[in-house]
């Protein structure tokens, strides 16, 4: 939604320009541990595996590693997990005190599979990973891990010798503790260590560092961890959101590494590796043969370096290598550096992109299944001023016949930025307002941020304080920072009891003025602290025994978790929640939607919305969107229209605007533009059945909904870097117009055996080509894949709920083999009853001139009033007769029309219920 | 199935007629839907069997085959709303579970429990309309008055303008005459003043000569160290300031050549020619220790000041800017200062000019009188010009088709809210002043009428008000509605720095019968 007012002033008053003030955020050089770690250059690792310490049980291998420089021992644990995943954990063998291990992100302790020893000698051991001749080779001196399949190395760890583990140590100038000395005397190993340690130079920033005016006391001293991964044969890596950058990650040799540290970045800049609001430490590596993934489970500040031996080479250079046969294998090297915690890394071995998605989903879960209405259009603004304003905007949509489902209230709706309250003048009767929306079958979202106004007359604050739920500062008092309400406390969401209490605050009798059609938006949960270092919390703030340093990237994840739980509980576990968050971490997909934060009304920001959401989708977070129109600044009418057209085809479709921008409800730009926006929104509504089905699939499988082309065409290198177009599921290809004044776009249609049908004209195109498409202001280039069946509801009404019982039109696009298939998923659209098998899942298939609907979930029970009103077959030939057969064996003739010029056959009103078995035969 | 709707309609209040027509079709289009006969889409695009009308499948591109179902995306449904106003709703609102038509006819198959509220709405609306009609009636009468007043006002103004234009002509003539008088009086004045000045200049020259002679005598005595009545070259050479090439050595030869000191020594008379050559440079021996005043140091001491300042406040922009301004000012000031001090010096040296003699003074007084009269006439003409401009502006203002808005000109209307006092001065400006201290904010100056084409005079736009931080300049739209009184009803800020003001005035009242032409029919139901 918004960044800080303070920064706003600073940035504008001092620089006078519209760009991020980079000076407010650290570079690697300004972050002591990153600087320290990055100073290590590839070379021989000081670590050695002590094979004699190896213990192999059925599920895990452990052995000790020793750093020959300082004799500190580490413990390596290696697991083979179900579904072709290898887990590598490295911790200190005997840390001074426990090091943080990330809880709550994995959906369970991952189930293991047996590891077996293939061979062993003094140089190392070879373990079998079971399937497909996969092995792990543990080399002893220096320590490294190689994961092999047959003769190919899939991935190597510490092959560049960059494993580094800063062990916890006593601070020299405070080392007057006699007990500690005694211990050291008693333990010769420790003594050696101490002796060695003394030789190590104490670098700046190990025991304290400062940034701008902020000091970090670093009570635990240096604690960083780092490890390198080599990916032979790989030239394309993806993921590690959130960054405003291209889909394909760039090498970082000549600049900063990609940074993962949840930050409220005011007016973020595009195409750079700076950290943004969320962090998912998951990277995908892909080539035409295989996809692999690395999940680095660490919630501290993290930097990721990427280098490649082919990065600098031109296509010609690569050719020359090939011709001369002197080519080394292309290779990408990656290095992860985190400030604290342990090394806990999940190596997902694919081999297909979809295997990666299911492997990652088996660890962190899948996208939550949202209420259907959340997939419709959302109208937001900072702020809708009062109840009258809400009512007028609501009426405006009806007057201009534009559908919408949700209207949103930003921070100004509260009583003085006290969340869970309403402004007594502007929103004096919230239930009346919400009831007005209920009557239109519409809903509302109100913001609830995690910073709590310090005010002894505020119930929420008093309870949190009295329960001791606030995060503490380094001196033990409640941490206070500056945010929207002024001085604010930050509840410690890492505590389960705190989260339970927070969830209980959403009960209808606690959250006054709330009703079942009121949902929640969590903003500022990085957390944003206007007067904190890098606009966030001091790293030495305390969450119980842990420093904020250890848990930082988890904060937003927990806020959304607790809020979603609250929305579930208030309905007694019946209704699905809808919660939007700005900050996130691995696993956040389980709790709702995310958006790309405070973007700007610029064409480049429209363009970047595609790779930003694609990158999130790859790491499990499918429910992604960008503020339509751009948050900061005022869009030109053309940009606004194009943004609606793009947003209509992205998972989370919400228009939003900054307080200081002119109003931009869709009807304020003249009848022509109102019509263009109306048409874009209507296209979204007709496709809601398809979107809903995609979310159901994503919820089942973890596959991204908005997905890069390479996910479906993994062997086609032409798709590997495309990020100006995307697929929705596997059947719709979208190439939105994102250029100002565009007369045409060139879309790549993948698949040499594919056909693609323009969804507007039904024009057929062959795959594996770059297609130039002339465009006008009304164009949204979208193609349906030949071989697919897509259900739509063409009766667009004022909200998705109004369309619940409406009939379907099936779009059957034939492939060259004249077959097609698809699915139809129907349930009540808003409860968890689908978990109790209350849904309809039909398999639709067209083969041998018969289109049939077959029950894919015979054990599920649900009935619908919806029926099939029309079937449109693209790429068809003209039949002489069309016969419908329904369950009872009854047959009837179906009327049809055939458009010979486009080869489109339209079956008129076959009329069968959408939930039953039927078949239609073309003769 | 083709669904029919039975409608009971009182036509002109005379007799009850049963009209059968497909659901959702307005009476006016009944003839296109003839039962049993093929139906042609209203856009003529195709003809279909009649049983496909309202069969819940869209056959016509214009949606006309499904007036009573939601099958067509672009269809519309007609609610009769007996007792209230009939209405068209988009067919997407049929059976969506939301009651749109007060006669409930849009929700015939959704299970929505709609109540027929047409009578209630009708009577409520009739009440409101009655009230509004009364207001409109009175307002319209007032408006007629306003038009009359504006008309006479305009005529008055035009007459006034004509009148003023005539008086302007007179003034111009008078001014020309006075100009001649002035110029005639100024010529002898100028000559007399010049004469007086010349005499004074002559006198001053004589005085200066006297002084020079005295000075020369004084210098002669000073140089003539041995008081022998002669000054020698050697005496002169002690005055290094007289060295013509300032090379540090003042030689006899130089003295001789440059200062005509042709003889070894000169007496008082011969010294005169030497004096003429040296007097510019000569420094009296009694003053020789005091360094000659130099101009540059003054500048040197001035310049470092801003430099010091800028070092003290290196990051502050504003002080530097202020210094820039100061420097610009100083560039001009020193000239003035020098000039003044010079004049003063002259006055000190040579006294003040004696007063004019009576004759000259009389001439000056006469000229001054002529000038004053001329200036006055000129001022009067300017005032008349202003008056003409204002009148022309007011006459040319678009005060509406009957100039009914003219009465607002020059008036201001206020609305007090909890925080602010809003002030609307029509055709001038809108402003906002905090109730409890603080300065006034300009919310825009008169821009133009911005109502829709068919009702241009329903909205006023005031633009280019005080700028908003990071936003546009403030502007205000004033929405005019019919009322007996001229009042600001409300103000709001729907978008940052874009204000909306609701304003009632009789000037927008329409003739009552033109409101809701069919209202009468229904009042009889």
From TrEMBL, chain A:
Signal peptide: 1-19
Membrane-spanning parts: none
Record-level GO BP terms: carbohydrate metabolic process; N-glycan processing
Record-level Gene Ontology MF annotations: carbohydrate binding; glucan 1,3-alpha-glucosidase activity
KW Signal (keyword) present: yes
Region (Disordered): 173-223
Domain Glycoside hydrolase family 31 N-terminal: 76-305
Keywords assigned: Glycosidase, Hydrolase, Signal
SUPFAM superfamilies according to UniProt: (Trans)glycosidases (SSF51445), Galactose mutarotase-like (SSF74650), Glycosyl hydrolase domain (SSF51011)
Residue ranges, compositional bias (Basic and acidic residues): 173-186
GO CC entries: glucosidase II complex
Ranges of residues in domain Glycosyl hydrolase family 31 C-terminal: 702-790
InterPro entries xref list: Gal_mutarotase_sf_dom, GH, Glyco_hydro_31_C, Glyco_hydro_31_N_dom, Glyco_hydro_31_TIM, Glyco_hydro_b
Residues in Glycoside hydrolase family 31 TIM barrel domain copies: 368-693
Family label: Belongs to the glycosyl hydrolase 31 family.
Alphabetical list of PANTHER family matching this protein: ALPHA-GLUCOSIDASE, NEUTRAL ALPHA-GLUCOSIDASE AB
Protein name: Glucosidase II alpha subunit
Organism in which the protein naturally occurs: Sparus aurata
Automatic annotation (TrEMBL), chain B:
Domain (EF-hand): residue spans on this chain: 211-246
InterPro entries reported for this sequence: EF_Hand_1_Ca_BS, EF_hand_dom, Gtb1-like, Man6P_isomerase_rcpt-bd_dom_sf, MRH_dom, PRKCSH, PRKCSH_N
Region (Disordered) location: 288-359
Signal peptide: 1-16
Record's protein name: Glucosidase 2 subunit beta
Organism: Sparus aurata (Gilthead sea bream)
Example of a GO cellular component annotation carried by this entry: glucosidase II complex
Example GO biological process: N-glycan processing
PANTHER family in alphabetical order: GLUCOSIDASE 2 SUBUNIT BETA, N-LINKED OLIGOSACCHARIDE PROCESSING
Coiled-coil region(s): 147-217, 360-394
Keywords on record: Coiled coil, Disulfide bond, Endoplasmic reticulum, Signal
Biased composition (Acidic residues): 306-336
Tree of life domain: Eukaryota
Pfam families named in the record: PRKCSH-like (PF12999), PRKCSH_1 (PF13015)
Residues covered by the MRH domain: 410-511
GO molecular function: calcium ion binding
């Amino acid at each position: 939604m918004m960044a800080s007012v303070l920064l706003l002033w600073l940035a504008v008053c001092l620089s006078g320009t519209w760009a991020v003030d980079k000076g407010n955020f650290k570079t690697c050089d300004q972050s002591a541990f990153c600087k320290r770690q990055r100073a290590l250059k590839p070379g021989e690792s000081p670590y050695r595996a002590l094979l004699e310490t190896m213990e192999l049980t059925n599920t895990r291998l452990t052995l000790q590693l020793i750093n020959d420089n300082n004799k500190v021992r580490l413990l390596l644990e290696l697991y083979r997990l179900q579904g072709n995943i290898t887990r590598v954990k490295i911790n200190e063998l005997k840390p001074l005190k426990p090091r943080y291990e990330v809880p709550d992100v994995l959906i369970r302790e991952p189930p293991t599979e047996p590891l077996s020893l293939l061979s062993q000698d003094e140089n190392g051991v070879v373990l079998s990973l079971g399937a497909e001749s996969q092995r792990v080779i543990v080399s002893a001196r220096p320590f490294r891990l190689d994961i092999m399949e047959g003769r190919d190395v899939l991935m190597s760890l510490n092959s560049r010798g960059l494993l580094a583990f800063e062990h916890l140590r006593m601070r020299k100038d405070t080392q007057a503790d006699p007990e500690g000395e005694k211990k050291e005397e008693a333990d010769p190993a420790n003594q050696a260590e101490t002796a060695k340690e003394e030789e190590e130079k104490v670098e700046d920033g190990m025991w304290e560092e400062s940034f701008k005016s902020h000091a970090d006391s670093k009570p635990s001293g240096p604690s960083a961890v780092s490890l390198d991964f080599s990916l032979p044969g790989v030239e394309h890596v993806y993921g590690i959101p959130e960054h405003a950058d291209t889909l394909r990650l760039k090498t970082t040799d000549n600049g900063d590494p990609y940074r993962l540290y949840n930050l409220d970045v005011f007016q973020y800049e595009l195409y750079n590796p700076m950290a943004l609001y969320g962090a998912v430490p998951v990277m995908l590596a892909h080539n035409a043969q295989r996809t692999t993934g690395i999940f680095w489970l660490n919630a501290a500040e993290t930097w990721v370096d990427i280098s490649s031996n082919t990065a600098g080479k031109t296509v010609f250079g690569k050719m020359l290598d090939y011709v001369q046969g002197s080519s080394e294998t292309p290779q990408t090297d990656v290095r992860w550096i985190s400030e604290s915690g342990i090394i806990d890394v999940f190596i997902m071995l694919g081999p297909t992109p979809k295997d990666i998605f299911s492997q990652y989903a088996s660890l962190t879960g899948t996208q939550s299944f949202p209420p259907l209405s959340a997939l419709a259009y959302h109208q937001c603004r900072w702020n809708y001023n009062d109840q009258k304003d809400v009512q007028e905007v609501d009426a405006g949509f009806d007057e201009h016949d534009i559908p919408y489902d949700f209207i949103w209230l930003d921070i100004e709706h509260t009583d003085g930025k006290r969340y869970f309250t309403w402004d007594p003048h502007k929103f004096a009767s919230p239930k009346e307002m919400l009831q007005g929306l209920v009557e239109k079958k519409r809903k509302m979202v109100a913001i609830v941020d995690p910073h709590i106004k310090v005010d002894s007359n505020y119930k929420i604050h008093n309870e949190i304080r009295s329960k001791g739920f606030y995060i503490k500062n380094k001196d033990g008092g409640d941490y206070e920072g500056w945010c929207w309400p002024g001085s604010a406390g930050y509840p410690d969401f890492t505590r389960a009891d705190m989260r339970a209490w927070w969830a209980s605050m959403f009960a209808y009798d606690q959250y006054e003025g709330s009703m079942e059609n009121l949902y929640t938006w969590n903003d500022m949960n990085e957390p944003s602290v206007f007067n904190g270092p890098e606009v966030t919390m001091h790293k030495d703030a305390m969450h119980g025994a842990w420093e904020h340093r250890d848990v930082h990237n988890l904060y937003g994840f927990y806020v959304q978790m607790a809020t979603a739980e609250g929305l579930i509980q208030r309905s007694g576990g019946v209704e699905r929640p809808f919660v939007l968050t700005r900050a996130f971490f691995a696993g956040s997909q389980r709790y709702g939607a995310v958006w790309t934060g405070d973007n700007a009304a610029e064409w480049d920001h429209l363009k970047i919305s595609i790779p930003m959401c694609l990158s999130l989708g790859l790491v499990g977070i499918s429910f992604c969107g960008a503020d339509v129109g751009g948050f900061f600044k005022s869009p030109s009418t053309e940009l606004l229209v194009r943004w609606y057209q793009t947003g209509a085809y992205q998972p989370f479709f919400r228009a939003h605007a900054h307080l200081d921008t002119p109003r931009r409800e869709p009807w304020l730009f003249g009848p022509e533009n109102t019509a263009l926006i109306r048409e874009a929104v209507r296209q979204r509504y007709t496709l809601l059945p398809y979107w809903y089905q995609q979310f159901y699939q994503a919820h089942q499988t973890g596959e991204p909904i908005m997905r890069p082309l390479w996910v479906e065409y993994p062997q086609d290198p032409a798709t590997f870097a495309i990020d100006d177009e995307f697929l929705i599921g596997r059947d719709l290809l979208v190439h939105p117009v994102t250029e100002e004044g565009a007369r045409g776009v060139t879309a790549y249609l993948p698949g040499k055996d594919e056909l693609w049908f323009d969804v507007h004209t039904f024009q057929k195109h062959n795959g594996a080509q770059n297609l130039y498409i002339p465009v006008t202001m009304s164009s949204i280039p979208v193609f349906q894949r030949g071989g697919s069946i897509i259900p739509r509801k063409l009766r667009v009404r004022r909200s998705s709920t109004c369309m619940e019982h409406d009939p379907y039109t099936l779009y059957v696009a034939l492939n060259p083999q004249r077959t097609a298939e698809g699915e139809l998923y129907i349930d009540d659209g808003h409860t968890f009853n689908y978990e109790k098998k209350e849904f309809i899942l039909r398999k639709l298939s067209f083969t041998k001139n018969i289109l049939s609907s077959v029950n894919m979930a015979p054990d599920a029970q649900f009935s619908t009033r919806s029926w099939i009103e029309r079937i449109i077959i693209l790429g068809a030939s003209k039949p002489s007769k069309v016969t419908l057969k329904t369950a009872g064996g009854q047959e009837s003739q179906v009327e049809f029309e055939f458009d010979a010029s486009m080869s489109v056959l339209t079956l008129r009103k076959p009329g069968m219920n959408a939930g039953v078995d039927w078949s239609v035969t073309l003769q | 199935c083709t669904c029919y709707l039975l409608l009971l309609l009182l036509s002109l209040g005379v007799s009850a007629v049963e009209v059968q027509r497909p659901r959702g079709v307005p009476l006016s289009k009944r003839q296109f839907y003839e039962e049993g006969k093929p139906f042609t889409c209203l856009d003529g695009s195709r003809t279909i069997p009649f049983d496909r009308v309202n069969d819940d499948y869209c056959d016509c591109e214009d949606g006309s085959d499904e007036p009573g179902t939601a099958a067509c995306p672009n269809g519309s449904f007609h609610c009769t709303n007996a007792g209230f106003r009939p209405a068209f709703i988009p067919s997407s609102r049929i059976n969506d579970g939301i009651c749109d038509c007060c006669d409930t006819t849009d929700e015939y198959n959704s299970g929505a429990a709609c109540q027929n509220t047409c009578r209630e709405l009708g009577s409520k609306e009739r009440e409101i309309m009655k009230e509004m009609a009364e207001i409109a009636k009175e307002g319209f009468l007032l408006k007629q008055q306003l038009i009359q007043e504006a008309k006479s006002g305009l005529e008055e103004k035009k007459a006034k303008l004509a009148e003023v234009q005539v008086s302007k002509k007179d003034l111009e003539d008078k001014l020309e005459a006075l100009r001649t008088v002035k110029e005639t009086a100024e010529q002898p004045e100028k000559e007399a003043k010049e004469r007086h000045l010349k005499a004074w200049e002559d006198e001053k020259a004589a005085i200066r000569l006297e002084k020079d002679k005295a000075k020369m005598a004084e210098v002669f005595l000073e140089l003539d160290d041995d008081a022998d009545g002669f000054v020698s070259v050697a005496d002169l050479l002690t005055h290094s300031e007289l060295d013509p090439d300032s090379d540090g050595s003042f030689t006899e030869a130089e003295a001789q050549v440059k200062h005509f000191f042709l003889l070894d020594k000169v007496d008082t008379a011969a010294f005169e020619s030497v004096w003429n050559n040296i007097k510019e440079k000569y420094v009296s021996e009694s003053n020789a220790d005091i360094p000659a005043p130099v101009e540059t140091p003054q500048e040197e001491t001035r310049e470092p000041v801003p430099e010091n300042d800028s070092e003290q406040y290196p990051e502050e922009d504003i002080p530097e800017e202020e210094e820039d301004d100061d420097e610009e000012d100083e560039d001009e000031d020193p000239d003035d200062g020098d000039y003044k001090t010079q004049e003063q010096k002259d006055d000190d040296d040579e006294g003040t000019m004696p007063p004019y003699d009576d004759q000259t003074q009389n001439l000056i007084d006469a000229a001054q009188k002529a000038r004053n009269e001329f200036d006055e006439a000129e001022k009067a003409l300017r005032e008349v010009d202003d008056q003409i401009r204002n009148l022309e502006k007011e006459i040319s203002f678009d005060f509406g088709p009957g100039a009914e808005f003219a009465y607002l000109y020059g008036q201001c209307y206020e609305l007090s809210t909890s925080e602010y006092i809003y002030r609307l001065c029509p055709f001038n400006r809108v402003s906002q002043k905090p109730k409890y201290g603080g300065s006034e904010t300009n919310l825009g100056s008169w821009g133009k009428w911005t109502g829709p084409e068919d009702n241009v005079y329903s909205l006023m736009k005031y633009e280019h008000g005080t700028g908003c931080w990071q936003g546009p300049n403030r502007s205000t739209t004033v929405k005019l509605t019919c009322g007996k009184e001229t009042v600001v009803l409300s103000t709001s800020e729907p978008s940052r720095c874009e204000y909306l003001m609701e304003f009632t005035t009789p000037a927008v009242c329409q003739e009552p019968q033109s409101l809701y032409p069919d209202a009468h029919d229904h009042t009889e139901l």
